[in-house]
Specification:
single chain, 5-stranded antiparallel beta sheet
């Protein structure tokens, strides 16, 4: 996969897959997410899960990641 494509996506680290473990999510795995201010304000994160579809999960189960910046 092209590194520039990866950098432009938003990523979150799953810290608790809960009842979804082994089906649509795995704990301790990185997932792409789709920014959605309204759902995030209500405590949800729109994550592209193992099925490849965006789905709303409890935002507390994820830690948003930031891409490292290039040093000058």
């Amino acid at each position: 996969m092209n590194i520039e494509k990866i950098k432009n996506k938003k990523w979150a680290f799953c810290i608790d897959a809960g009842e979804h473990q082994g089906m649509s999510l795995f704990a301790f795995k990185m997932y792409e997410y789709v920014p959605d201010l309204i759902s995030e304000a209500e405590g949800f994160l729109r994550v592209i899960d193992e099925e490849g579809e965006p789905y709303y999960y409890d935002a507390k189960a994820f830690v948003k990641m930031k891409a490292a910046q290039k040093r000058k």
